[in-house]
Amino acid sequence: MATRAFQRLPSAPAGRILVLRLAAIVLSLCIIAGVLALSGHSPVVLAELILRSTLGSRFGLEDLALFMCPLLLTGAAVTVCGTIGLWNIGAEGQFYAGAIAATGVALGLHGPAIMVLPVMTIAGILGGMAWIAVPTLARAYAGVNEIITTLLLNFIASLLTYYLTTGPWRDRISGAQVSTQRLSVSIPEMWGIVHWGFPVAIVIVIGLALVLSRTRWGYEIRIGGANPEAARYAGIPVRLRIISVMLLSGGLAGLAGMFEVAGTVHRLQGGMANNFGYLGIVVAVLARGSCLNVIPAALLMALILDSGIVMQTQQLSASVVLAITGLILFMIAIGDELAHYRPVAGATPKGKAS
Amino acid sequence: MSKQPAPAGVAPGTPPVLQLRGIGKFFPGVIANKDVDLDVWPGEIHALLGENGAGKSTLMNVVTGIYQPEEGEIILDGYGQTFTSPQEAIRAGIGMVHQHFKLVQAFTVAENIHLGWDEAPRIASPAVMEARTREISERFGFPVRPDARVCDLSAGEQQRVEILRVLARKARLLIMDEPTAVLTPEETGELFRALRAFRAQGNAVIIISHKLDEVMEISDRVSILRGGRKVGTFNTADCNPSMLAATMVGRDIVRRNMRARPEGAAPIATDPVMQLRNVSVRDDRGVDTLRDVSLDLYGGEILGIAGVAGNGQRELTHVLTGLMARTSGEILLDGNLVDRADPALFVQAGVGHIPEDRLRSALAPSLSVTANMALREYPYPPIGTHGLYDAQAAGGLARDIAELAQVTIPDFAMPVRNLSGGNQQRLVARREIRIASRVLVAAYPARGLDIGAIATMLGYLTDLRDQGVAVVFISEDLEDLLNVSDRIGVMFHGRLMSVIDAEAADMATIGLLMGGRDATNTQSGAAQ
């Protein structure tokens, strides 16, 4: 007990985390390659294919950007909420609510895109906010755990989407299953199939990073998250801040849903959230509470998703892809934990507890 | 004192249940206990009294096997014992009920009673456990509902479960740490009745407390610890609260007059900055924690607040800084009525606050040193302009504060928790002094500091006084209070007993007041 070879740091330096995460990714890729080789696939061929169809081709890059767009926003939604110490597990539901609201506008409002799109955007944001409103008020005024309330509302939003797309809003034109008709307006494309929602999402994330670090509101949120008692002591109206942060978080996820409907899918479809809400939690965890880190974290997550699709075309089942995702995240979590430890100078390497 | 004969009623030749001989326990740089002798006889309730940090809890942790003593021996029923774990102490019949209960909230009472108990039946249905619990509950006279979940119980009921847990394991010596801190007066009465019944069966109780009247009511003998050593053991019948209070705090006091003002210091203002008019606070247990307190604070004056901890000092601090709403009475700032408890309002008025638990409530541990130093001034220029937060200006402020506090900080972006506790305290004190343009409320500002740092801290207070700030200095150290304060108020049971002129104050008077005796001859120097 007297001599320990490692010392635990209370907070891990960012450089060490980066190095260990890269090591974790490389290590997990090696493990994956080993398993694939044992099961009769050639890791080299697969790797080449994945690289070519993601980072190595224009089509791949466009696909990556489309995956990143919702992940940036849902990741930011969870990160912002986490800054004040709360978990928004309901980005999935708020995503659907935003998509539903935007679709409602598009189906009911006929006019030029320049007029309809802004209304859809506002409707999407308000939809997300409305979906988190009850958990927000319950949290702020009754102390109800937001993790459970936001999570449960996901299922309602998802089922509501199924109801609308098979019931009142079902496609009566082409007869597509579990879908509305194609929306008459869409977000203009800027580069191939990548719509303008992508750069807007990047700007929003950067803007949020600035708001959190450079405004009084952001400072109060950070204090409120780090120690609510200290926030109260400093005269910060913690309850109002909780309400504003949670609504913002819901609005971001709702906007992600609107972008997806109006930019990528062009219809409201059952199951269209594609786990983007839940993956937003993963992105936020990878970003470690920093909005700027959401960008590389969303990129990593998009890469994993995209590679998964490529692998499915090579007769690898979807569950293998899920297992790979889990492995990479698992290794990164270990890397993050190890980053807290540093060797103690002078400790005997094989020091038996004396 | 330690060689007291067995009290009346104990058969001759009966050894004490517990004997401690020369117990010493040291932590790096701290002597927690030294040369402590203690006898606890069957059939007695023994109170252990002392200030915060006097070594009561450490001593009891030694007795219950949580700590191993460096010196001395523990003798049970005449036989020497060493405990290497709490389990061994429990097996030997020593049970402790901690101040913060150690129950599984989601389990039922019966499940909690049987948890980790080697006599619990191997296969036990809820019905069996509940029946056993009911039997135990009746045997010891602590009524509980065996099938209730612990999280649904009141603090008093939870405490009964804790006690039963210990008694079920055949404890003959029950140690209770501040048992009445969470109880209503009715629950306290019930607890005391049950403890007396337990004593009547020839068992012993050690009760840690600093509520003097409860010690007087329940205990047969009192041992007083101070600075880790035992001052003495007394028959409670020979004691009175004032004498106990004086013994608890009474060391040789070196009186240094720090009241003298230098040339050019601000005189004591004629109009009060802040006034309390008959302020009372009732907590959510329905206990009046602050009763009818009236107080005037004048710029350029230090008002000391003395009293045994837990007599309303915390509530007074919180009312004075807007953290706690009063139940009745009035608060005036510069003659204007303050109608709501809002800390921001008080900060704006120039009221600084060094809270008692500053590391927990005045800092955000995971945020940077800079962010923590900006906590009080972020809404105002240069840091806060047009709703923005200027990180650069905050950095400048943090450097200024660190320099004044004489804390060297390698990196202002690192989390404040990386600093030592002492340095965090210095930074908080300096930050609060900066904003205290009218009033500083300092609760135990010297606690945890070494002697040099205490002198510096007291110097801060007198400097502020000389600048014309009204300082409220709450402390349990009478020496510091007498040296620095102009007036001293004494708190007892939430009441401000009396405010006396510090120069004329003597230990005996303050001791009487701390024990709740409103000595009429002390009224001469009292403020109206």
From TrEMBL, chain A:
Subcellular location: Cell membrane
Residue intervals passing through the bilayer: 20-44, 64-86, 93-109, 115-134, 146-164, 193-212, 240-259, 279-304, 316-334
Keywords in alphabetical order: Cell membrane, Membrane, Transmembrane, Transmembrane helix
Domain of life: Bacteria
Molecular function terms, GO-annotated: transmembrane transporter activity
Entry's Gene Ontology cellular component terms: plasma membrane
InterPro entries: ABC_transp_permease
One Pfam family, short name: BPD_transp_2
Primary residence: membrane
Membrane topology: Multi-pass membrane protein
Identification of the protein by name: ABC transporter permease
Origin organism lineage: Bacteria, Pseudomonadati, Pseudomonadota, Alphaproteobacteria, Acetobacterales
From TrEMBL, chain B:
CDD domains with a match to the protein in the record: ABC_Carb_Monos_I, ABC_Carb_Monos_II
Pfam families, alphabetized: ABC_tran
Presence of the UniProt keyword tRNA-binding in the record: no
Topology relative to the membrane: Peripheral membrane protein
GO cellular component, one term: plasma membrane
InterPro entries reported in the protein's UniProt record: AAA+_ATPase, ABC_carbohydrate_import_ATPase, ABC_transporter-like_ATP-bd, ABC_transporter-like_CS, P-loop_NTPase
Broad class of the protein's primary localization: membrane
Residue stretches making up the ABC transporter domain: 18-252, 274-518
Compartmental location: Cell membrane
GO molecular function: ATP binding; ATP hydrolysis activity
SUPFAM superfamilies on file: P-loop containing nucleoside triphosphate hydrolases
Keywords: ATP-binding, Cell membrane, Membrane, Nucleotide-binding, Repeat, Sugar transport, Translocase, Transport
Domain of life assignment: Bacteria
UniProt xrefs under PANTHER family: CARBOHYDRATE TRANSPORT ATP-BINDING PROTEIN MG119-RELATED, GUANOSINE IMPORT ATP-BINDING PROTEIN NUPO
Name assigned to this protein: ABC transporter ATP-binding protein
Species of the source: Komagataeibacter oboediens
Upper classification of the organism: Bacteria, Pseudomonadati, Pseudomonadota, Alphaproteobacteria, Acetobacterales
